[in-house]
Amino acid sequence: MTAEGLIILLLVGAIAGWLAGMIVTGFGFGLVWNIIIGIVGAFLASWLLPRLGIVIGGGIVAAIINATIGAVILLLIIGLIRRR
Cα separation of 59 and 37, whole Å? Predict the structure, then answer.
């Protein structure tokens, strides 16, 4: 992965974390943590979704959608673990 690709992935992850924080209410971790979770979710989604055969398409919008899906999944898992 190039430096440019890494920067884009971090920016997409930050946007996705913010969106995931807006979608998943009740498991709020604050804006900064949601952005961090979004970045981790972007890495997770970029690895997991193509292996599951889920490909939305190309471009920045598709990357944000994929990363948001990963971040929402990650927020739900963390929220459920944190609740126990």
Answer: 22
